[in-house]
Amino acid sequence: MRGAAPSNWAAGDGTFLSRDEVDELVTGLEVLRLHEEERDGPAFSGPKHWHTYQLVARRP
Asked: How far apart are CA 31 and CA 59, in angstroms?
């Protein structure tokens, strides 16, 4: 879901962002690639619904 807060298990040393936060992060940059993948898959705690982003951006 666009703009949804990351899962409540998202803690620790990782970086966990919503799509809106990703969009804000690249404000002012030239986005060469931004791909969002949504899928069900495993996690250490059991099944999880994942949203992952592949991002390539540069300064204009």
From this structure: 9
Element spanning 23, H or E: helix 19-25
CA dist 34 and 37 (Å) reads 10
In whole angstroms, what is the distance from residue 14 CA to residue 1 CA? 20
Residues 6+ apart with CB under 8 A from 29: 57, 58, 59, 60
Residue in the block written with tokens 């799509």: 19
Residues 1-60 pLDDT 10s: 455 545 555 556 778 888 999 999 999 999 999 999 999 999 888 998 888 999 999 999
Looking up tokens 């540069």 gives 58
